[in-house]
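Task: sequence design from structure.
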């Protein structure tokens, strides 16, 4: 089913707009998605870095405590001086996060503690991890994992132990000692809980050396095995982000190592929350694009209607032409191209009317020439001369020639008048020429002889009827009849490319240059303007009064009407040498003048 131009324009513009909008929407959504993911990663990194910075700041404050205590001990003249005890008390009063301060000898004996507490007798301090770290790496601040404080009687608080190996003077003797500060873990817990990574995200802390969890907001679930963290993967990173699905959910893991502690802060963000945000952005983009698409459809429908309206007007005008109404010109306003189209349409209508008039005139001329052909087919003078020749032959008892003449005459008339068709085969046209030449040869008492040759492949092609006979008649009447010597006429049919070529050649008197030019230009030469031929003895040219020039012009016009301007006749001639006439028609086969087809 064919569609209107308005429908095609609307659909095409709409499809193009949909494709462009869809591509733009996908690019926009992809850009927003990437931006959202990058924002989530950046936000998580900033939060994790903030936690790391808070921990580092807290560690620096604890380090300052150790430095103050160490300086006080060195300046006070001993670890058990009143100055040291006074300083420890002052520190406990100003730092609520510090649970206890203690100083031990390298053998694990308590030198001083604040508040003063009794160490459990069963406690082997030298086996504690914080004690070993302080003695193994003197001067380095070590941190323990969160644990319950259990070295003092009656104290069971959740603390992180910080220890450092220092040098003291005891009774005038310099010796190594271990300074222990137990910090309330609640302070570290609060530093980590202040952050928020969405509704489900969180931050936890692990030990960089062994991967032990220092802090986790769901510590209890970790202990009883209801929650799992892929600590092994986190240990591979000092800083950065990666995707993790070890728990069955897509999570964004961001890691930052805390300087001077050996802890890693791990941020966990859930991608479904990021995707929810991306979905909201996508829905918003879709709503905007649908609104734009609706506007585009409305505009495309309006524009296509405006573009197609003048074309529909032109279509309406063409329908009036189909009904035969050629008189009314079309005036259409619109785009420049449409106005020009209407102008060309009016010019075309004028040309069509002119061509119709020309066709009518050509058809009338064609019927006229066909009538002339029919009249020429039965030339009374030719018939009279032929019958007169037969009478003479009867008196001379030339029975064989009589039979030959009458047989040729009957065949001549059969082809000339048979079936009333203007198109016959090349074979039939050559047969007609042969019969005509046979009759004329007998009539002129063997004044000339003739030959007919044809390629086998051209015999089945179609041709206009009676295009050879007028040319042969010219050759006899104007070229051979007044010759002293014997005449010769050669007729040949050939296939040259896509054309059938007839050649009629004689050795007659020839044609003068002026008459030859008129014949080749298509001008008719009749009785009022005689053809000039040679005298036969070489003394000059003489007029020959014959109307055969009209017959030649007739042949030329019939060929032009049936086959086109590029086909027709060509004359070549020299006085006293003879004349050659070439006829070319297109190569065609068929069964009649209305059923012809090109080969």
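Answer:
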């Amino acid at each position: 089913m064919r569609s209107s131009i308005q429908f095609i324009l609307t659909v095409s513009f709409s499809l193009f707009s949909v494709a462009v909008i869809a591509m733009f929407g996908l690019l926009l959504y992809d850009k927003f998605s990437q931006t959202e993911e990058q924002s989530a990663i950046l936000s998580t990194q900033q939060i994790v870095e903030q936690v790391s910075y808070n921990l580092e700041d807290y560690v620096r404050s604890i380090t300052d405590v150790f430095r103050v205590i160490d300086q006080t001990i060195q300046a006070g003249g001993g670890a058990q001086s009143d100055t040291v005890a006074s300083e420890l008390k002052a520190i406990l009063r100003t730092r609520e996060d510090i649970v206890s301060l203690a100083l031990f000898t390298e053998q694990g004996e308590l030198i001083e503690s604040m508040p003063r507490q009794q160490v459990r007798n069963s406690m082997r301090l030298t086996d504690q991890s914080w004690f070993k770290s302080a003695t193994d790496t003197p001067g380095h601040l070590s941190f323990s994992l969160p644990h319950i404080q259990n070295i003092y009687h009656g104290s069971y608080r959740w603390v992180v132990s910080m220890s450092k190996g220092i040098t003291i003077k005891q009774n005038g003797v310099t010796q190594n000692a271990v300074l222990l500060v137990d910090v309330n873990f609640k302070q570290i817990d609060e530093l980590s809980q202040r952050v928020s990574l969405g509704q489900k995200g969180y931050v936890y802390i692990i030990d960089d050396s062994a991967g032990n969890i220092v802090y986790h907001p769901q510590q209890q679930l970790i202990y009883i095995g209801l929650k799992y963290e892929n600590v092994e993967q986190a240990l591979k990173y000092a800083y950065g982000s990666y995707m993790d699905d070890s728990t069955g959910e897509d999570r964004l893991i961001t890691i930052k190592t805390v300087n001077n502690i050996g802890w890693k802060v791990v941020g966990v963000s859930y991608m479904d929350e990021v995707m929810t945000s991306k979905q909201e952005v996508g829905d918003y983009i879709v709503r905007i694009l649908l609104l734009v698409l609706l506007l585009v459809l409305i505009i495309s429908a309006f524009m296509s209607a405006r573009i197609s309206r003048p074309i529909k007007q032109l279509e309406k005008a063409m329908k009036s032409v189909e009904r035969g109404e050629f008189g009314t010109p079309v005036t259409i306003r619109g785009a420049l191209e449409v106005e020009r189209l209407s102008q060309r349409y009016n010019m075309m209508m004028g040309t069509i009317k002119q061509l119709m008039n020309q066709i009518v005139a050509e058809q009338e001329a064609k019927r006229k020439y066909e009538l002339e052909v029919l009249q020429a087919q039965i030339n009374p003078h030719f018939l009279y001369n032929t019958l007169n020749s037969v009478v003479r032959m009867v008196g001379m008892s030339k029975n064989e020639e009589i039979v030959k003449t009458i047989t040729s005459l009957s065949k001549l008339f059969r082809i000339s008048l048979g079936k009333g068709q203007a198109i016959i085969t090349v074979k039939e046209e050559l047969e007609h020429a042969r019969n005509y030449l046979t009759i004329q040869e007998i009539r002129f008492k063997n004044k000339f002889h003739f030959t007919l040759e044809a390629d086998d492949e051209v015999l089945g092609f179609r041709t206009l009827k009676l295009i050879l006979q007028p040319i042969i008649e010219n050759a006899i009447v104007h070229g051979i009849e007044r010759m002293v010597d014997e005449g010769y006429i050669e007729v040949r049919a050939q296939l040259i490319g896509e054309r059938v070529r007839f050649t009629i050649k004689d050795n007659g008197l020839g044609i003068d240059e002026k008459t030859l030019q008129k014949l080749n230009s298509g001008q008719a030469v009749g009785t009022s303007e005689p053809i000039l031929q040679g005298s036969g003895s070489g003394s000059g040219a003489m007029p020959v009064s014959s109307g055969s020039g009209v017959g030649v012009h007739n042949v030329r016009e019939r060929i032009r009407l049936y086959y086109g301007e590029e086909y027709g006749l060509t004359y070549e001639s020299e006085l006293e040498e003879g004349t050659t006439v070439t006829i070319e028609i297109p190569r065609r086969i068929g069964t009649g003048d209305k059923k012809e087809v090109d080969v």
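The domain at 1-325 is CATH 3.30.450.20 (Beta-Lactamase).
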